[in-house]
Amino acid sequence: MTQATPQRRALPTPGLMGTALTLAAHGIPSLPLRAGKVPFGNCPACTGNACGGRPNMKTAGPCRCPGVCHAWAAATTDPAVLTSPAWTAAWLRAVAVAYHPGGAGLTVVDLDDADAITWARTALPATRTVPTTRGEHWIYRGTMTSHNAVRPGVDIKSTMSYARYLGPGTGTLTDLPDVVRALAVKEAPAVRPAPVSMPAPSNGGRCPHRTPTFLERGIDMAEQRITTARSSIHATVYATFLAVLSRHGRCGCLTDNHVNRLFTAAQTKGETARHCMDAWNNARTTLGL
Prior knowledge:
36% of the residues lie in helices and 14% in strands. It is an alpha+beta fold and 289 residues long. Strands 4, 5, 6, 7, 8 and 10 form a six-stranded mixed β-sheet that branches. The chain has a four-stranded antiparallel β-sheet with strand order 2-1-3-9. A hairpin with a 4-residue loop joins β5 (128-131) and β6. α6 (212-227) runs antiparallel to α7 and α7 (233-248) packs across α9.
């Protein structure tokens, strides 16, 4: 009796997994993209971040899901993960490879059209460039907060973002210039602090907690706490606002300038003006202000 020929197990596209492994060998975290060139969605156990999220995401706590979860945060340089059964299943459905620029110490200036490329050639220092479907990726050494639409046809992809891998590109990789960092600051939404309706101070407007220098030092420390946060940004912003308001929220010494400084620090970490307003108002409500 003739034995049935065993079915051959489907294998992922060698080029995609091979590209990911090559990137991993160079310290560049990568991940597969599915149809539409978007990351794979969370598995059922991780939907809505029920798992607590992955490290370096805006939610706290590690996720040990073996699948390709959490979009850019799934990017890895671990060959064992890239070739694991769960990832192999993803590579079977993948159409492209993406990477996390910030995880590789890089920033990608994504130029979407000819006008954006013309602007970059006159405004930005030359660096490594990679042709894309509609424009070019200009890649710099250094990281910053990712921002979309910093000017017409220009996005910045670095931390907490992903970029499609389209080849090594040409040209010499150069350091991230201040002009790119300034784009994000210049184009960030205007900071509009929440209305402050504190009780009138009883001591002529001076901070009762030692001296006015005490308040300035507290604001400086609050700014530093936000800007140096590496994870749980939402929670850090709220906790910092809560700490500032618990110490100075009732004495009438906080000014719009102080609040603006805190909101600006939060926005440099990728928070929106709306989230800053919500976090501020929630902290006031918690303290009964």
